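User: Sequence in, structure out. Go.
Assistant: Echoing your sequence, followed by the structure tokens.
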Amino acid sequence: MKKPFAIAAAIAAGVLAATVFAADVGTVNTTIGEQVGTEKAAAASQNRINALDDETQRMLDDYRATSREAESLRRYNEQLMLQIKSQQEEMVSIGKQIEQIDRTNREIYPLMNKMVDTLDQFVKLDLPFLQDERARRLGALKEMMPRADVTTAEKYRRILEGYQVEMEYGRTIEAYEGTLGAGDEQRTVNFLRVGRVALLYQTLDGDETGYYDAEKKEFVQKNKYADGVTNGLKIAKKQVAPDLLVVPVLAPKEAK
């Protein structure tokens, strides 16, 4: 009777062992499954972390780029503000200059007109040399004054130029050909201008010589100056070296 009992016990033990083994295998499988799930979850979490890290880095880069752009724009705006301020100051300065120019124009136009009139009177009272040339110059100045297409500066420059030409006459010697007299008495002569001291003439054949008498306001024949005028004409034409000239000069009078 003991053997059957022993066999039954062995069978029971084997069944128990099989049951325990099966239970251990299930536990292990469950544990492995949980581990795999945990690793998958960890991997997914890591992927999300990596994605978040990349997004964070991208946002950081964008923030830095935006900050640099904002700083650049701020400096640019500051520079623009300085330029605008400078332009506003320049506009104020230009406005003041325009006002001064307008005021200067109002003041200088009467002065320029007076300068032209004075030059005209001076030429009329002066020795009658190069009359056509000087009359054309004065006529051009008078014609220019009312013109709107000529600037104030240009008008003033040309008036001063006219004065400079007249001043130059006073310190030069000049010979030029012209006519003297009218009608049947008109003849071609060589004029000799010695500064503004004397204006003399001599016919082309040298037979007649004379000078302008400022008191009589006319030319007077005076052949005794023939040699002096002939020599003076040569000097003025640079045909001979400069030399002493004897010319008639009106004696100065005491001012009253």
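User: And one key feature?
Assistant: The CA atoms of residues 144 and 155 lie 7 Å apart.
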